[in-house]
């Protein structure tokens, strides 16, 4: 009786504490490391993994080593690679007239120009148009100053605001000045971007040392995309060298999460509506719709279902799709502020007909796995398990602060491997509840057996006590 009771308890313990194993996953592939000496490797997930994983958040993805043991890993977002900073020269106009000429008229113009610059007024001809610029900050009488108008070339298409400008001066040693930078889009209203920035070129011939400061960094919180700029250089002590060129540099774009495309399968269509389906419910961030016929306009409503159990078509919105010619690009629908779980999609024409159903592509956030690849390789990536629980670490928890995900060597998926049978996919919630019910009945059976065992033991002790009396 004791042995039976102990065996039952061990069976229940084994059922409730089963380890994560490869045969619990339906799909798998070998991992080919590009650097076997690295402590970490990273893998870009493929379309098979997104569509065959049973969890929309990829909770049923694992990495196993050659011993079949789970390996620590992190699910991380993939970001689009930023382009290098855009640097380009700008057109420079000198607003101060320092030219000497024997012509009396030119001398008079120069004197008049100096008077106007002293009160912050400048006249300049741009593209055969006379422009007057008025600045609030006037120049001091005994101050050396130089004022320049900077114009962004019209062919420059800015994606990001300016972050810096670099100034190339005529050669002149041992000088110091301060720089003020103003900006405007109409040459009338000027605002200060930054002021009193030190600019200098100093040389110490005795120690063979030099210091050149010829860049101005703009505040990062401002969206500087103005066409016109005023650069004011001022010094109380010495002349300021003339400017040869000025270059602006744009700020790098904020990293954007990359997207992975999944084509939807057309499952039914008629003249009024077309229905599409994904192999599993996926968290969609973006949709693209492309009409098959040229020179076509299609007003339509888009509906969706979130899962196979969803019996209601939910309206996304009304849209107008156009195809001008055979090179026309797909039209994009962004899921604003969030993601949307979609299993089925329906396009219903409004006062129009569907001669050929459009092609539909869904986009979800692209993901990668970073895992500890230092010991017990080769490794297997496994996915597709209805009973797997979340096991991913955060990227920060897996990697030390000194390691960036971009510096981790990239691994690749190799040959597919057979893990658990496809029968593991049929372990639905109903199966889990049945398994849970079975475990409960086993526990109750053991408890009842234990109670009976104690009753029999008590009766046996009672008989022995009576015999002794």
TrEMBL record:
The keyword Membrane applies. Residues 1-18 form the signal peptide. InterPro entries: DUF3999. Keywords: Membrane, Signal, Transmembrane, Transmembrane helix. The chain crosses the membrane at residues 441-462. It comes from the Bacteria. This is DUF3999 domain-containing protein. It comes from Gilliamella apicola. The lineage of its organism: Bacteria, Pseudomonadati, Pseudomonadota, Gammaproteobacteria, Orbales.
């Amino acid at each position: 009786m004791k042995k039976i009771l102990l065996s039952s308890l061990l069976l229940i313990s084994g059922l409730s504490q089963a380890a994560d194993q490869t045969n619990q996953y339906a799909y798998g592939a070998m991992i080919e490391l590009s650097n076997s000496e690295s402590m970490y490797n990273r893998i870009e997930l493929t379309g098979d993994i997104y569509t065959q994983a049973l969890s929309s958040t990829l909770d049923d993805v694992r990495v196993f080593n050659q011993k079949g043991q789970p390996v620590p890993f992190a699910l991380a977002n993939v970001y689009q690679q930023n382009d290098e900073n855009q640097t380009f020269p700008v057109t420079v106009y000198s607003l101060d007239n320092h030219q000497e000429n024997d012509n009396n008229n030119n001398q008079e113009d120069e004197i008049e120009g100096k008077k106007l610059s002293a009160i912050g007024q400048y006249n300049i001809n741009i593209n055969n148009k006379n422009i007057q610029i008025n600045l609030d900050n006037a120049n001091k009488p005994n101050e050396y100053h130089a004022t320049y108008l900077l114009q962004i070339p019209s062919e420059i298409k800015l994606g990001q605001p300016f972050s810096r400008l670099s100034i190339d001066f005529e050669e002149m040693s041992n000088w110091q000045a301060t720089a003020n930078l103003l900006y405007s889009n109409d040459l009338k209203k000027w605002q200060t971007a930054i002021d009193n920035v030190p600019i200098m070129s100093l040389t110490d011939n005795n120690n063979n040392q030099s210091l050149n400061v010829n860049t101005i960094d703009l505040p990062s919180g401002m969206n500087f995309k103005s066409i016109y700029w005023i650069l004011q250089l001022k010094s109380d002590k010495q002349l300021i060298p003339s400017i040869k060129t000025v270059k602006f540099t744009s700020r790098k774009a904020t990293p954007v999460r990359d997207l992975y495309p999944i084509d939807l399968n057309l499952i039914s269509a008629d003249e009024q509506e077309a229905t599409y389906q994904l192999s599993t419910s996926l968290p969609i961030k973006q949709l693209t719709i492309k009409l098959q016929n040229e020179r076509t306009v299609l007003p339509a409503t888009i509906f969706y279902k979130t899962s196979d159990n969803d019996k209601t078509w939910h309206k996304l919105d009304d849209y107008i799709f156009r195809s001008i010619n055979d090179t026309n690009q797909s039209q994009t629908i962004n899921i604003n502020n969030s993601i949307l779980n979609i299993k089925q999609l329906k396009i219903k024409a409004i006062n129009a007909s569907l001669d050929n159903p459009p092609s539909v592509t869904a986009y979800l956030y692209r993901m990668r796995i970073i895992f500890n690849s230092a010991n017990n390789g080769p490794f297997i990536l496994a996915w597709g398990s209805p009973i797997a629980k979340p096991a991913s670490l955060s990227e920060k928890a897996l990697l030390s602060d000194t390691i960036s995900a971009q510096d981790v060597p990239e691994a690749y998926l190799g040959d597919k491997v057979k893990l658990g049978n496809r029968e593991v996919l049929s372990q639905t919630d109903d199966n889990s509840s049945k398994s849970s019910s079975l475990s409960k009945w086993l526990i109750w059976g053991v408890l009842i057996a234990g109670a009976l065992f104690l009753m029999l033991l008590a009766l046996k002790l009672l008989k022995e006590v009576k015999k002794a009396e």
